[in-house]
């Protein structure tokens, strides 16, 4: 079993385990206080959001500003699940999880049905999948809510409290991420057809729509516990370092393996040239949707982590000005570089929200947004490819064939 | 992915057995049409219930739409020529509003003719003063746009497009938060002193001469347009050129819109217990009038002058334009200046209408104006105008009759709906086959 992991992979596993142990020890010993723990968790969440954006924009070439919308969906959905659970109501858990599963089943049926037709327009696909989603959630929320809720309560509620909390948290994170993925799937079908700039603006519109919906959760959407524009309070503070670490590693490894697979090469080829990708037989539309859904799934997962760390959600923290943050991090770190994104994401939060806030005089806060656009401008002038360019850590580096020139030279020499 | 994952034999058979999905497409289009019919039903019901209020809302929508149209013109020109979404355009709009605020509140610029010639009649003072304030804001915003282009965008013109986009976001943040500093503007909401007093006209206070004059202007210019078109069809080249002249457009737009608004406001009838009694404020008339004048002026520059020709050439193909001896840098800078000037004027009009200035006031109107430009077809000047009006009407009608808190959400979903139906926008050209 262990012999399968060789070289870089082994180093990576050992390094990340050591990192895990060190940070856990620092937190347990109290060296890292609450403020810095929050900064680390926040950095991990932002980095997960940004890795998702890097998959969408850096690797697949679809300029998106909607990442914070999916982040918000994940945060609010998972927070609602745990909030209801803490208040003795398992309906949030049951409806989100089973509704998502039923939606996925229906998607498979719709996809199988649509495959029997040619000449199907985007609008038809969008309508079919939207109706399938509405139907699935209507069935679950309307008819199966009672039995499923009591079933979830019976199965999970009888566990020991420590395990129960972790199981519920797991399903809350999963539910938030699934909802974000489903939303991105439905939104992506029509909008990904539009092409680069229009897609960017449409996703920006999506972020604004989500923000407006969050402002009205208690009045229009009918979730009084989310308290609309006043901000949701009373979310259990369940995020711990192991949870952050596991979800972060999940994102990194899933993304790394996805990019190393043939699907990942299809994703890259769509970025390089859509026409050429179509010509070699890649289904460009579904590759784009795949990258978009996976990236948004990551954002939803990060939202759950962040919500249960902060224990307070406010629509203002998901407005579209914030949604430029992941874009700036991706570009600073280097488009198409996972290493760059990870390092820049953590540095961004640690510097801007941690160190500078702590060590600079109080008047700095007003100057913060004056100075960092200037740094951004200088950065764009001096190094537009980002701090790390295309550099990757050995574990994350895609296995490429040896450059042809050298090979040819060798053959000639032999 | 599913198609690729299937076995080849199975795929072949399913491929052969596929049926035409056209009826499915018709079905889904029908569902969408049903949704549209639902919206129309809600609006129609509101109109039938209270036609006076509904028409008043439509007129308010026009007021907002003309402001959006002015901002959208800058977006559409800049996108047309450098293919850049200038996120900082909304902040140029904000700077325009603040410039006029300081001009009015601290320098009292809108009263300058009264100080120079104390005997001047009040109406002329207000007119000249307001025009001065708008021109000053246009000048400042235009200069700001040129500076922005020179120091932020020009060095990046040959770099990847994302670099310029990130820079635009950076410039936008810089203007917003530099403006928030206490010694620049401030981070509070400030009450805006209007350059003129609000006067509300309704039936009785509108001079019939103005109404008739507008109708005459409208009818004469439409008639002239038709005559010139007919002459042009018969081979008269001069008539063909005159038919496209912005002066005729000015007559049609200015005369048409003002005539309709003045007539709607100037009529008072009572039908079956419902009173039709609308009003139009002078703010609304000033906004519509100056917006149309500026747009027609822009149309004149773009279609009739050498600079406009150079702009169209540079938008079509920059390297070729450069080979033809066009100074592309100068052309791009003047495009930014024109767009910035229009945004500055829009800032004054917006602040006059809503009586408030704030350092973040440019973001949402800026984005809505960009959406308007996309709806109209980006790169097209009439498109920006029509898109602006559509956005204004959507926002006001949605706020009035569908759901007030959701107005922004509905306005932005318009973008997605329109892009699905007309991917190039209403007036946009189909994409060129450039490979």
Description:
The complex is a heterodimer of chains A (414) and B (435). Chain A is mostly helical and 414 residues long. Chain A folds into 2 domains: 1-32; 36-321, no CATH class. Chain A has 17 helices and 3 strands. Chain A has helices spanning 7-29, 34-59, 67-86, 91-114, 122-142, 145-157, 161-191, 196-215, 217-221, 241-260, 262-272, 274-279, 284-310, 324-333, 338-359, 364-382, 404-413; strands at residues 117-118, 232-233, 312-313. In chain A, strands 2-3 form a two-stranded antiparallel ribbon. In chain A, helix 4 packs parallel to helix 7 (161-191) and helix 14 (324-333) crosses helix 15. The longest helix of chain A has 31 residues, at 161-191. Chain B has 435 residues and is mainly alpha-helical. Chain B has 2 domains: 51-199 and 282-420, ABC transporter involved in vitamin B12 uptake, BtuC; 204-266. Chain B contains 18 helices and 7 strands. In chain B, the strands form 3 sheets. Chain B has a two-stranded antiparallel ribbon with strand order 2-7. A two-stranded antiparallel ribbon of chain B has the order 3-6. In chain B, a hairpin with a 2-residue loop joins strand 4 and strand 5 (274-277). In chain B, helix 4 packs parallel to helix 12. Residues 1-9 of chain B have low confidence and may be disordered. Classes of the chains: A mainly alpha (414), B mainly alpha (435). At the A-B interface, strand 1, helix 5, helix 8, helix 13 and helix 14 of A face helix 1, strand 1, helix 3, helix 8 and helix 16 of B.
List low-confidence stretches of chain A. Answer: none
Strand order of the largest sheet of chain B: 2-7
Query: What is the distance, rounded to the nearest whole angstrom, between the alpha carbons of the first and last residues of chain B?
Result: 27 Å
Percent of residues in helices of chain B: over 70%
| Count of extended strands of chain B | 7
Give the strand order, joined by hyphens, for the main sheet of chain A.
2-3
Supply the number of structural domains of chain A. Answer: 2
Q: In one word, what is the shape of chain A?
A: globular
Would you tell me the overall average pLDDT of chain B? 86
């Amino acid at each position: 079993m262990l012999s399968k992991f060789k070289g870089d992979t082994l180093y990576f596993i050992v390094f990340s385990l050591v990192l895990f142990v060190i940070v856990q020890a620092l937190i347990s010993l109290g060296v890292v206080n609450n403020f810095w723990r929050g900064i680390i968790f926040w950095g991990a969440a932002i980095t997960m959001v940004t890795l998702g954006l890097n998959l969408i924009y850096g690797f697949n070439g679809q300029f998106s500003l909607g990442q914070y919308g999916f982040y918000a969906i994940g945060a609010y959905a998972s927070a609602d699940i745990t909030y209801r659970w803490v208040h003795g109501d398992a309906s949030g858990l049951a409806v989100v999880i089973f509704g998502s599963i039923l939606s996925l089943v229906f998607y498979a049926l719709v996809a199988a049905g649509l495959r029997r037709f040619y000449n199907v327009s985007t609008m038809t696909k969008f309508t079919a999948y939207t109706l399938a989603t509405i139907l699935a959630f209507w069935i679950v929320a309307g008819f199966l809510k009672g039995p499923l809720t009591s079933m979830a309560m019976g199965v999970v509620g009888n566990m020991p409290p420590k395990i129960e909390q972790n199981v519920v948290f797991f399903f809350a994170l999963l539910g938030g991420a699934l909802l974000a993925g489903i939303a991105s799937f439905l939104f992506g079908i029509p909008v990904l057809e539009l092409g680069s700039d229009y897609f960017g603006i449409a996703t920006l519109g999506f972020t604004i729509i989500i923000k407006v919906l969050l402002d009205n959760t208690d009045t229009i959407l009918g979730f009084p516990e989310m308290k609309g524009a006043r901000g949701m309070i009373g979310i259990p503070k369940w995020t711990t370092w192991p949870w952050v670490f596991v979800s972060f590693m999940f994102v990194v490894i899933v993304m790394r393996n996805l990019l190393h697979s043939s699907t990942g090469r299809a994703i890259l080829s769509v970025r390089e040239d859509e026409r050429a990708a179509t010509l070699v037989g890649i289904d460009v539309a579904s590759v784009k949707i795949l990258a978009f859904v996976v990236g948004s799934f990551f954002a939803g997962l990060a939202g759950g982590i962040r919500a249960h760390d902060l224990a307070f959600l406010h629509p203002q923290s998901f407005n579209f000005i914030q949604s430029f943050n992941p874009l700036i991090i991706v570009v600073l770190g280097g488009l198409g570089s996972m290493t760059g994104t990870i390092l820049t994401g953590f540095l961004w939060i640690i510097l801007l929200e941690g160190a500078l806030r702590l060590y600079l005089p109080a008047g700095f806060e007003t100057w913060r947004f004056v100075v960092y656009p200037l740094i951004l401008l200088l950065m764009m002038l001096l190094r537009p490819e980002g701090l790390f360019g295309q550099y990757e850590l050995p574990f994350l580096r895609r296995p490429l064939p040896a450059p042809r020139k050298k090979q040819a030279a060798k053959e000639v020499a032999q | 992915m599913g198609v690729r994952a299937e076995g080849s034999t199975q795929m072949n058979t399913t491929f052969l057995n596929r049926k035409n999905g056209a009826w499915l497409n018709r079905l889904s289009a029908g569902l969408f049409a049903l949704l549209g019919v639902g919206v129309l039903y809600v609006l129609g019901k509101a109109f039938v219930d209270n036609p006076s209020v509904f028409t008043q809302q439509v007129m308010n929508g026009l007021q907002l739409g003309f402001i959006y149209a002015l901002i959208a013109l800058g977006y559409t020109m800049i996108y047309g020529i450098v293919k850049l979404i200038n996120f900082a355009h909304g902040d140029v709009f904000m700077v325009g509003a603040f410039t006029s605020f300081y001009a009015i509140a601290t320098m009292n610029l809108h009263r300058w003719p009264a100080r120079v010639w104390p005997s001047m009649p009040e109406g002329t003072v207000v007119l000249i003063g307001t025009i001065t304030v708008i021109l000053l804001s246009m000048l400042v915003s235009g200069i700001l746009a040129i500076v922005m282009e020179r120091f932020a965008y020009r060095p990046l013109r040959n770099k990847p497009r994302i670099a310029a986009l990130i820079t635009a976001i950076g410039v936008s943040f810089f203007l917003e938060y530099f403006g928030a500093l206490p010694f620049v503007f401030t981070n509070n909401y400030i009450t805006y002193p209007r350059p003129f007093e609000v006067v509300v006209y309704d039936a009785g206070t509108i001079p019939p001469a103005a109404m008739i004059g507008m109708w005459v202007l409208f009818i004469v210019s439409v008639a002239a347009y038709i005559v010139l078109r007919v002459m042009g069809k018969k081979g008269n080249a001069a008539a063909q050129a005159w038919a496209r002249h912005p002066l005729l457009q000015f007559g049609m737009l200015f005369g048409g819109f003002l005539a309709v608004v003045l007539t709607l406001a100037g009529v008072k009838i009572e039908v079956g217990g419902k009173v039709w009694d609308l009003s139009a404020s002078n703010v609304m008339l000033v906004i519509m009038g100056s917006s149309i004048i500026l747009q027609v002026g822009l149309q004149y520059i773009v279609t009739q002058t050498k600079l406009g020709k150079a702009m169209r050439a540079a938008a079509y193909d920059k390297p070729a334009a450069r080979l033809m001896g066009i100074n592309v840098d100068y052309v791009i800078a003047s495009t930014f200046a024109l767009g910035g000037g229009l945004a500055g004027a829009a800032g004054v009009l917006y602040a006059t209408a809503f009586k408030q200035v704030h350092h973040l006031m440019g973001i949402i109107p800026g984005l809505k104006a960009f959406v308007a430009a996309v709806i109209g077809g980006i790169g097209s000047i009439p498109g920006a105008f029509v898109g602006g009006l559509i956005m204004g009407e959507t926002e006001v009608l949605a706020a009035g009759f569908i759901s007030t808190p959701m107005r922004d959400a509905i306005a932005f979903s318009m973008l997605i709906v329109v892009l699905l139906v007309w991917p190039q926008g209403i007036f946009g050209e189909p994409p060129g086959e450039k490979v």
